[in-house]
Amino acid sequence: MIRFEHVTKRYADGTTAVDDLSFEVAEGELVTLVGPSGCGKTTTMKMVNRLIEPTSGRILVEGGDIAEADPVQLRRRIGYVIQQIGLFPHKTVLENTATVPHLLGWQRKKGRDRAAELLELVGLDPSVYGDRYPDQLSGGQRQRVGVARALAADPPVLLMDEPFGAVDPVVREHLQTEFLRLQSQVRKTVLFVTHDIEEAVRLGDRIAVYGSGKIEQFDTPASVLGAPATPYVADFVGADRGLKRLSVTPIEPGDLEQPPVVHLDDPLPKAAARLAADGARWAVVLDDADGLHGWIPADAADGTEGTVRDHARRMEAWLPVGAPLKQAFSQMLQHDAGWVAVLDGERFLGVLTPARLHEALRRSIDADAGGIARGDVDLQTVADV
């Protein structure tokens, strides 16, 4: 969808902002450009819509050389979101969102209908917010309008330059979550500029880590964190890159332990025998359909009368399979839990313990390094030595 072929940008004073840059972005892919200020990432993005012209090389969008396109027409078919948002203060939210469709000659009703649809998609009810003006919105709401406006003409490419950098951390995290939800629906080809490696890791399908005018590594978030290509990349992503990698490593069924399982209507002696046979201190409690209900400690199953239902405790820490390891770690800390239940829909799969979480992270790193599946990694532990 986007291809850079040996692109260089050199200014009249001799400064080289981008030096011989070549890479591709696939259709529907979200690529984050990350690096320190002055590294060339914003210059790279602005060359795509010709706000900056390259000194040499070619940039192709949808197979066409953008140098041969009319700049104004090119920009009208590429969505653009910036940190300052750039909403027109004298226009309502609905009018702001419909700006590009109107410039493209859409009928007024069609443009407003499209604007209302996009506002709904970004979580702003058009019947509530459509007639408001930008100064009547919060920073996070204005940023959502900026995203909706960029998508209004259904562009194939979306350029985003530090779009969430001007809001507080809580709002920023919420906007990131909402944007990931939105991208899962619209699947635009996105170049997303940020200086924050955690934002780059969370959002990007792939990450381009910039040095000085060059890309030091262009790979998946997991690979960048697990196997930095250069000392520069290792230093940039930080010594805590293992912790960062937790956010891009999913829980897999092979990571789980299988504790003893009892059912709600099991008599307590049966539950006690099950626990004793496994030498376990607790068991997972399932309902009649084998859905997760809770857990029961061994001492609560010691009675001779009653059923598991009478003594089952609520399960606070649980996640769906495929959730990131970081989320599992967070659940363990939040609930002071030694394990997290993992579900496939309503079906109980097993539990993730701290030891298994650590093993899953190590397997993921070794799998990427060896180009093999996580399940094929022969992981040596202290117990094996």
From TrEMBL:
Q: Which family does it belong to?
A: Belongs to the ABC transporter superfamily.
In terms of InterPro entries, this protein maps to: AAA+_ATPase (IPR003593), ABC_transporter-like_ATP-bd (IPR003439), ABC_transporter-like_CS (IPR017871), CBS_dom (IPR000644), CBS_dom_sf (IPR046342), Gly-betaine_transp_ATP-bd (IPR005892), P-loop_NTPase (IPR027417)
Protein name, per record:
Betaine/proline/choline family ABC transporter ATP-binding protein
Q: Which organism is it from?
A: Streptomyces coffeae
**Which SUPFAM superfamilies does its entry note?**
CBS-domain pair (SSF54631), P-loop containing nucleoside triphosphate hydrolases (SSF52540)
Which one of the record's GO molecular function terms can you name? Answer: ATP binding
Domain ABC transporter, chain residue ranges per copy: 2-237
| CDD domains assigned to the protein according to its UniProt record, in alphabetical order | ABC_OpuCA_Osmoprotection (cd03295)
* Record keyword Cell inner membrane present: no
